[in-house]
Give the backbone structure.
Amino acid sequence: MVAPLWRQIFLACASGALLPLCFPNFDLGLLAWGALIPLHLAFDQCSRRRAFWLGWLTGVISFTGIMAWVVTAMTTYGKVPLLVSYGILLLLTSYLGLYVGLYGLSFVWLRELIPRYGIFFAPCIWVVLELLRTYLLSGLPWCLLGYSQYRELDLIQIADHTGVYGVSFLIILINVALAELILWLMPFFRKVHPAQLPWELLTTAAACLVLSWIYSASVLTEENPSPPKPSVVVGVVQPNIDQAVKWDAQYRNETMRRFDRLTASLATDTDLVVWPEAATPFVLEREQDYQLQLIDWAARAEAPILLGSPALRFYQDRTPYLLNSAYLLAPDGTLLGRYDKHHLVPFGEYIPLKSSLLFFLDKLVEGIGDFEAGPGATLLSFTPKSLVTADSSDGRPVKFGVAICYEVIFPDLVRRFAANGAEFLVTITNDGWFGPSSAPAQHFSMVVFRSVENHLAFARSANTGISGFIDPFGRIMDATPLFTEHALRGSIPLGRARTFYSYYGDVFAYGCAIIVAILWLYGYFRTKEATPGTTAIEPA
């Protein structure tokens, strides 16, 4: 018997409305452990087709709530008409809703494939869909379900083995188990078959939750080694340059004066000064006068400056192109290294298929041109003053990785810095595009998982905020408010031991994909065997 449609739609909408509350700025992370219960109740006695549309409805509502900031970015800074901006947001969330729709279809399929036990594998389906969302069509892994737990450090340390996907797996498992328990407790939802206590599912979910808590507690207990790890003092600069004037040549001198003032406010015992993405409102390599200024400021700070600036390059036919780069400039004027952004923002830094299918589009945000991708996880290095000792007057070089803006939401991309030997990590960004929305806080929260996955500390410099420091276990050591001028100093520990995740990456997520593939093959061949070739007609 199929449940009433109105009730299923109401339950799907309830889950869609609850999910945005689990993420910043609401930060009701614990709500995620039950936010999807209504949707799973809606799947009871539901056809696959209806489950797909119910899941899609939940996805559209939840992603609209989570990503409403897209409208701000397009209307305020991209000069896109408001009505068109809402249309684009709906188009985007309709696409993202498909992933939740596919989960709904798969959930009902699992229940039919292996009665009572098939839904044990529902979390694997969810993880595979999140993995697919990370890579398909350039990838948009914004606010994966696990990120809702960025404040629950005593549960999320499993991410050093499973990545953020393992936390998503656990949340779905708990939601499924609680939904099944409710269905058992309320015969109203069961009108055809008598309910059976899903004790196997409840036991599995409880065991996974307890084991996650025990493991996380053990990791946090052992976090203070003896002797303590060496550390470096990093200063991050948040200039708060209004996006509307950031590239205005008339405002250029004021921008540089602000950087000068904030950099000078950092003490000279700082080992590294970090400026945000695209800090210079010009192409640094083409402005010799400003280069000399920067060298002077680095010399005064007695520390190298890491700063974002576009790099201009040319194809063989002399056609120019840009790289979104981070330069490491030494106090003596030496360029210690440069990292070029590898994963670009589609429709923000480049137009996919612009030369063919999407030739009629321009970027949704105003900027200075189209960008090309850099080569990948290149490490930068410098010699911190704080590591100079009596035994080694020259100190030793320290390696670190830089993730520029959008890159930090891609777990495997950041992992490659750790795998290559980074001792700490830096992310520079310009979140001014988002305005006073929830996006800067959502963006910052995802950095917590990059620290936990690799057990490396993070320093973050953002033009308008949030800037700050995160320790190797995900603790937010310091953070600035939005739209204020700030210069923060923080001592962050260096790390060299690699986690399982740093070494092997998304083994857990790909393991889930293998399980799903086996289930699909099992379902395919079982269906094929159950389909008769010919049926004999018995006489009446």
